[in-house]
Amino acid sequence: MIERELCGERVGRLGLGAMRLPVRGLLRSIDREVADRMVDLALEGGVRYFDTAWFYHLGRSEGFLGSSLARHPRGSWRVATKYYYPGFPDPRKVFEAQLSRLGVERVDFYLLHSLRDPYFERYFERGRLEYLLGRQRAGQISHLGFSSHLSPGNLERVASMRDWDFAQIQLNYYDWHFGTARREYEVLSARGIPIVVMEPLRGGRLARLRPEAEAPLRAVHPDWEPAEWALRWVKGLPNVKVVLSGMSTPGQVSANVAAFSDERALDARELAALEESCGASHAYLAAPCTGCGYCTEACPRAIAVPQVMDAYNEWRATGSLPAPGTPASGFADCVGCGACSSRCPQSIPVPDLMAELAEASRRA
Fold first, then answer.
1. What are phi and psi of 9, to 5 degrees?
2. pTM value?
3. Orientation of helix 92-102 relative to helix 128-137, angle to 10°
4. How far apart are CA 316 and CA 322, in angstroms?
5. d(Cα 79, Cα 65) in Å, to the nearest integer?
6. Does residue 196 contact residue 244 with C-beta atoms inside 8 Å?
7. Measured on CA atoms in the order 303, 309, 311, 316, is the torsion positive or negative?
8. Contact between 15 and 196 (Cβ < 8 Å)
9. For residue 134, which of 144, 125, 124, 126 has the smallest C-alpha distance?
10. DSSP 8-state symbol, 323
11. What is the predicted pLDDT for the residue at 102?
12. How far apart are CA 79 and CA 75, in angstroms?
């Protein structure tokens, strides 16, 4: 595993994100046997950075990750977790519980979670940041940063507030060309803030390309899978220290570890092929959903929003609507409350797209 220095610590460039761990049963509990095997494979492959948060897997992720990592020497891994203002306005009510869940006396990397334009200022009111800085001075937090879904202008405001140890942003080749990722990268790099990357595969979308988007890549490297292209692209950015991947299977761990076995990124010919592929993808990503599931947790009708967004993209690309009775047909249950949109890191107007699908279904 190739390494970089992050906040004075040597870490593998690949990190394991614990938001998409394997699940089983009707209750969607974490499949501990498989997930433990994934953690073991990651450590064997040189992964040292493990990322979680209070709400992942309906509150089960921190506890699982803490117990799984505890099977290995403390010095062999670093754990990151987060404080999310919309869920808990007072960080005092969650921080000590997070230490207990993780089974640690110190969180190595702690983040203000998912800063977004509508509410990011709340993180800096009522002594919230000061409390966390106090925990850092007390040795309970080693490095303090933030994860951002902010517009570049507000990201610049936050980046200039203090000397942050690190920052986490959504960064992949698609958002570089069709989003604000390039500007976000430049804002942080100009201030010398090291970057941890989330969503390098855009929730797996960049690992599952349509044939017209995959063709330019296969023409150059028939043996490379789309995920490898995406990971090689992002590791070529010099200020990217750790690339998080929300892996779900041991096979994904092994494949991603292999992609970080050397520093080779992409040459000019490969970059041109990837840009062509990216343009083809853009034509069918009308709803830029990453499948994070924050929307589903907020939905009063328990609609499988990510599956519906996939169906929306398929409908826009091919005119095909999802079959009745499938999770993707849940748009029919939407009441238009907007709870999903208020939680969406991608700012997708989900109720509007649900209404489009419902109207198309009525006309069909």
1. -120, 140
2. 0.88
3. 40
4. 12
5. 9
6. yes
7. positive
8. yes
9. 144
10. P
11. 98
12. 11
Q: Determine the Cα–Cα distance for residues 84 and 95; give it in Å rounded to an integer.
A: 11
The percentage of residues in the chain with a pLDDT greater than 90, rounded to a whole number, is 75
Identify which of 174, 172, 182, 109 has the alpha carbon closest to the alpha carbon of residue 152. 182
**C-alpha 313, offset from chain centre:** 20
Contact at 8 Å (CB) between 128 and 120?
no
Q: Would you place residue 157 in the very low, low, confident or very high pLDDT band (cuts 50, 70, 90)?
A: very high
Q: Which residues pair with 146 in a beta bridge?
A: 112, 167
The b-or-e profile of 207-241 (16+ CB within 10 A means b, else e) is: bebbeebbebbbebeeeebbbbbbbbbbbbbeebb
Q: What pLDDT, in 10s, does the model give residues 215-261?
A: 999 999 999 999 999 999 999 999 999 999 999 999 999 999 999 99
Task: Kindly compute the dihedral angle of the four CA atoms of residues 80, 104, 298, 118, in this order, to the nearest 10 degrees.
Answer: -50
d(CA 306, CA 317): 17
Condensed to tens digits (0 to 9), the pLDDT of residues 288-307 reads 888 887 788 779 888 989 88
Mean pLDDT value of segment 128-139: 98
Distance between CA atoms of residues 107 and 74, nearest Å? 12
Residues ≥6 apart with Cβ < 8 Å to 103: 66, 67, 70
Which among 206, 163, 153 has a CA at the least distance from the CA of 184? 153
Q: Measure the CA–CA gap between 95 and 104, rounded to whole angstroms.
A: 12
Contact yes or no for 116/150 (Cβ under 8 A): yes
- State how far the Cα of 172 lies from the Cα of 290, in Å rounded to an integer: 12
pLDDT band per the 50, 70, 90 thresholds, residue 319: confident
Residue 328 has a pLDDT of: 86
As a whole number of angstroms, the distance between CA 94 and CA 90 comes to 8
Write out the two tokens for 151.
């517009």
Nearest to 110 by CA among 79, 156, 69: 79
Q: What is the SS3 string spanning 71-88?
A: CCCHHHCEEEEEECCCCC
Q: What is the pLDDT of residues 74-107, one digit of tens each?
A: 999 999 999 999 999 999 999 999 999 999 999 9
